[in-house]
């Protein structure tokens, strides 16, 4: 059974999928028909934060130019950049082995930004059907889904969800916080 979250809702992964150890986070979107001449290139990124809510190091920022976390087991892996978002299903995927995420990682922040949004005159108001979902990597069963329904007509960066530790278990928070300033705005927030 899939748990659908609304903005601000939190849920324990252990309660919705007992024994879950390996997940992938799928992100997808469509673009509304616009008269623009540029394709939309949305990019999923992950920030691995310590207890101070900041990146542990620059290598803990996982994106299309740094596909794996710095720990020896590579517990978090970005599967690559989708330049157009065309097609059905997940446009970009982040794999997470929950058992192997190092203990200094308190929170995994899942974000989406629009590449060159300012230069191309693009924003999330021109994006449709955006979602983030958590899938059991072993069974391929979707366990949590969050559909972005807010109007984000000026935002160029979105924090979609957080996967975080609380009392020894992993939880998911549907965040949906938008920022102007694209990826740089998120880097400014999470770098120490």
Automatic annotation (TrEMBL):
Domain TerD, chain residue ranges per copy:
1-190
Pfam families, per the entry: TerD
Q: Identify the domain of life.
A: Bacteria
Instruction: Write out the similarity annotation.
Output: Belongs to the CAPAB/TerDEXZ family.
Q: What is this protein called?
A: General stress protein
Organism for this UniProt entry: Crocosphaera chwakensis CCY0110
